[in-house]
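Action item from last meeting closed. Structure (136 res):
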């Protein structure tokens, strides 16, 4: 028998959940949003002229956040990659991936990058002019 409009008070009617949605959304508005990630320094995204015949790899942004677009580090305690030997760079990437170099952020960044893209990154950084020597 269908429920009538004159149902007794003790009968519990299902509450349409969609009516709660606006209240739930508004309740979230008063919360503090998570902290925004730090901005990438301008040096990391500056337009560096590519060496003749070399195009910037499409995965460069992952590396540039710390190592700089041109391989000159923009983050503290980060090595410069500019002018390094291609094979040395590829070996270092392999060591991060297999755990011989134990640094989780590098393993996480390199994990999704295909071998061909890692080679392109090594070519890019090897082709950049080395960082100027720092005198104490």
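Sequence:
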């Amino acid at each position: 028998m269908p429920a009538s409009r004159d149902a007794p008070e003790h009968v519990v009617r299902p509450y349409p959940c969609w009516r709660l949605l606006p209240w739930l959304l508004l309740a979230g508005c008063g919360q503090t949003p998570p902290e925004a990630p730090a901005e990438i320094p301008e040096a990391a995204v500056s337009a560096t002229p590519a060496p003749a015949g070399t195009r910037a790899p499409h995965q460069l942004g992952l590396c540039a956040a710390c190592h700089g677009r041109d391989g000159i580090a923009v983050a503290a305690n980060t090595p410069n990659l500019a002018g390094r030997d291609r094979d040395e760079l590829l070996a270092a990437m392999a060591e991060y991936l297999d755990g011989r170099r134990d640094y989780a952020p590098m393993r996480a960044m390199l994990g999704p990058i295909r071998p061909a893209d890692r080679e392109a990154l090594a070519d890019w950084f090897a082709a950049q002019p080395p960082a100027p020597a720092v005198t104490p």
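Note appended to the action item: The first helix runs from residue 21 to 29.
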